[in-house]
C-alpha cells in the first residue's frame, strides 16, 4: 500500500493554486494600501470567511473519509489500489461539497 503517488499529486495540485492565490491577494492588498484606499474594503471578506472556512473544513473531512474508505476497499476487495483511492476521494469530496451547499442555502434563506 504505497500512496506516495496519490499524496504527491494532491500536494502538487493543491499547493500551486494556493501559492498563486496568496501572491495575487498580497499584490491586491499592497495596491490598495499604496493608493491610500480605505482598508475597510478588506474587512468585507470577513462576512463570507466563515462560510469559506466551513466549506474547506467539510471538504477536507470528506477527502479524509474518502482516503479511509479507499484504504478499506483496497484491503478487503479486489479493486485496484488507484481505483479504490481515487474513486472514494472524489465521491466523498463531492458529497462534502453537496453538504456544504445545502448548509449554505439554508443559511441564506434565514438571512
TrEMBL record:
<dbReference type="InterPro" id="IPR046216">
    <property type="entry name" value="DUF6249"/>
</dbReference>
<feature type="transmembrane region" description="Helical">
    <location>
        <begin position="6"/>
        <end position="23"/>
    </location>
</feature>
<keyword id="KW-0812">Transmembrane</keyword>
<feature type="transmembrane region" description="Helical">
    <location>
        <begin position="56"/>
        <end position="73"/>
    </location>
</feature>
<keyword id="KW-0472">Membrane</keyword>
<dbReference type="Pfam" id="PF19762">
    <property type="entry name" value="DUF6249"/>
</dbReference>
<keyword id="KW-1133">Transmembrane helix</keyword>
<protein>
    <recommendedName>
        <fullName>DUF6249 domain-containing protein</fullName>
    </recommendedName>
</protein>
<feature type="transmembrane region" description="Helical">
    <location>
        <begin position="85"/>
        <end position="104"/>
    </location>
</feature>
<feature type="domain" description="DUF6249">
    <location>
        <begin position="6"/>
        <end position="104"/>
    </location>
</feature>
Amino acid at each position: 500500500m504505497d500512496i506516495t503517488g496519490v499524496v504527491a499529486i494532491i500536494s502538487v495540485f493543491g499547493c500551486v493554486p494556493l501559492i498563486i492565490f496568496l501572491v495575487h491577494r498580497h499584490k491586491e492588498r499592497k495596491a490598495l494600501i499604496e493608493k491610500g484606499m480605505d482598508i475597510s474594503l478588506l474587512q468585507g471578506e470577513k462576512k463570507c470567511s466563515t462560510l469559506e472556512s466551513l466549506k474547506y473544513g467539510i471538504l477536507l473531512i470528506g477527502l479524509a473519509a474518502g482516503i479511509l474508505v479507499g484504504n478499506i476497499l483496497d484491503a478487503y476487495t479486489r479493486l485496484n489500489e488507484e481505483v479504490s483511492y481515487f474513486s472514494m476521494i472524489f465521491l466523498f469530496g463531492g458529497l462534502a461539497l453537496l453538504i456544504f451547499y445545502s448548509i449554505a442555502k439554508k443559511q441564506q434563506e434565514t438571512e
